[in-house]
Records
---
Amino acid sequence: MADIAEQLSADESRTKDSLSSTRKLRGVGETLGLAAGKTVARLRENAALARQRAQQVTSENPLRFLAVLAGVAAVAGFATRLWRSSGNA
């Protein structure tokens, strides 16, 4: 009889431990979910601001935008040519 009582009390303590672990995990999951949601919202805001700024720049200075784009393309082409000529490709 004493053995059964000991097993029952051990089972009860394990159940309490598993419940507290479950609560902790649930709390961590909720915290991670909130952090992820805030990060996604912040990324959307930044993307909207970048899109708005790009539209503003292209409408105000279209030639400057094209010049910068051509310069970036020229530098990328030059860098690619150097990389390929060095035997790394």
Note: The radius of gyration is 30 Å.
---
Amino acid sequence: MMKKIIFLKFLLLPLAVHGQNLYEELTSMGAVTIEYQLTGYNDAGRLVSSAEGKADVMGKCFKVIADKMEVYSDGETMWVLNKDADEMVITNDISFPLLTDSKVQTWQSGKKVVTYKSGSVSYKVNINEITKVLKPFDKSHFVYDNFYPELIVTDER
């Protein structure tokens, strides 16, 4: 579970646009939705992780929906759901620099492509689209509230 949490943190960490980090750009836009694809390769060039989905961002709040994971944060608490394992971790530790730890940013075919290396894994995030949301999200949009009987919850708060 921890490996998958770290994997999704990298989705939010490295985004940058023209020297301005994406977090600054997004907060100036208000509420936005990002569609993305993320891949991670080890030093041998083998694919070790991948995800595709969307992220809703408004200020310090975010909601990431990926193939096998969902991450919610209201800016104070973070809920990380591993759909395959029916496991959730709830934490107040959201101290990592969300959307701001830019590393390398390039452009390919008119799309934003960001690369980030962590240990022996190189991550690549293709940002397919950024859409400004006309009506701001309600704060409850960034809170996980769909607890079900099979869900194993670890509350680290």
Note: The chain has two helices and twelve strands.
---
Amino acid sequence: MKKKQIASMIILPLIILGIMIVISPFFTRQEDYIHWNSFYAQEDNSIDILLLGSSIIEVAIDPYQLEEETGLSAFNFGVAGCSSSVRAGYLREVLKNQNPKLVVVEVYRFIPTHSPWAMSTDNASFALDGMKPSWNKWRTIWEMPVSGDPFEKISFLIPGEHHQWEALNANGYTSLREQTYDRPKWNGTQNSVAPQKPNTVPSTEVLEPTKEMTDQIDKLIEICQENDIQLLFFNASNPEYIGESYAYINGMYQYLDSKGIPHFDINYEPELLAQIDNSEDYFDYHHLNDKGAKKNTTFLADYINENFLRKD
């Protein structure tokens, strides 16, 4: 009798969890699938440059322009609110069907003062809902340092965490690489203008990166080295970066230097930063609009052309 009770205690929760996994996709928000469906629509081994990060890199780098200026195919996998803790999971998922030559990783969400919001259950589910069910998805969820007990991580698969109905295959979306740079998420905003305060010289203070930061960096380095992929950490122009934020970034750059990993920060390039017009190139306090994106994309393309191999 006891064996049956124990078995039922184990099997019943597994059945319930399985049902939740199956029905969960029908409750996700529409935006969640845009990036993932776009990625899964790409032909195998068709991506040379992969960009990973949050909305900062999403709106800062135009993949079509990057392709034109480097001769390398590019895919921008920037997702709004995407925590640095899921980037290794994103990269593992990409490598199932792609073999990028270069992975460009946004610096912004590594900063501890900016990560708690992105670590929230709601934003984490936003970043992962569109990923196909697999061991990697489970692993990525479990790797996330979300506050609370372990059951909070399981809640990513529970429909109560989601906001809207969404068709399982999201047929209404076409590949973002087949569209213009005017992405559905940013229509009506990317060309808006929000004047910024003048650029401030980044702080020279150095704060040691947290263990969470270095662990996440090390995962990316390990994956790239195992797959013979070049890795670059990138920071787009951003007038918000002052004080403690840059102290952590400086510490992060020192850590990357110790590992022999390159980093390119436009905010540390006075000649480039001088080309950014803070009164015209942002649509809010730290997101670039189309004008600013064109400039940042050229800056990154020039760096890639100078430091990495072109296809042609």
Note: The domain at 23-307 is CATH 3.40.50.1110 (Rossmann fold).
